[in-house]
User: What shape does this take?
Amino acid sequence: MNPYKINSERRLLTVNHLAEMKQQGEKIACLTAYDASFSALLDEAGIDVILVGDSLGMVIQGNSSTVPVTLDDMVYHSRCVTRGRRRAFVISDMPFMSYSTVEQALQSAARLMQQGGAQMVKLEGAHADIVSCLVAQGIPVCGHLGLLPQSINQLGRYKIQGTVSEMAEQMIQDALNIEQAGASLLVLECVPAALAQTITRQLEIPVIGIGAGLDCDGQVLVLYDILNIESGRKPKFFKDFMTGSASVLEAVKKYRQAVKKQTYPAPEHCY
Ligand code: KIV
Assistant: This one.
């Protein structure tokens, strides 16, 4: 047995691995996690990317939106997650109002990386100017377009985005701008599958979808949703992987497999 083989299989994924996966057509399986135990379990199941999402404001803290989540919360949960994993790439969300100026964005991202151990930060919206300043300081960035949960008080409700042609055109342009500013990844949330396909084909960087169809380069879901822990109204892209699984580990492995083999999302999960 070659001990180095095991080592190399378990080595920490980097931003380069994610870019290679897109080039090679391998789908990227991503889930959220907020603590060390679930982080270790997701890692064991072979999840490629763990997102420390500000969705923790809802599923961990019991708030009705992500707006109350603070930078301290994100640093704390990022640290828990990065301690738990061995291989998975970790992205941390920049919370509401932690990137309203370039200076503030730099300080927030620095804390997520230095204290939280994040390998990349994610920010919502078309902020190419902020993305390029972060990238210039060596901070890998993930953009997030489509439904922007931090803007819920402007939107009024969580709903599909980019259905009107001008908004779709704008989203394509925003995605190109974010890529040009140096982002390494893009999340598209709740957008029509056809629009997500266009954006995924136009960008060189990997595009990760949530409610954005099958043609994205990978999928992300909230862990508590795939485990069917969350009660209340389910989004169209919801899929319970827990029912019929013997353990949480098995449910997560099924999710990973479904993403890799492109059996999730199915047409009924798409807009
Ligand atoms: O906060 C979050 O969990 C997210 C998602 C993309 C699911 O941003």
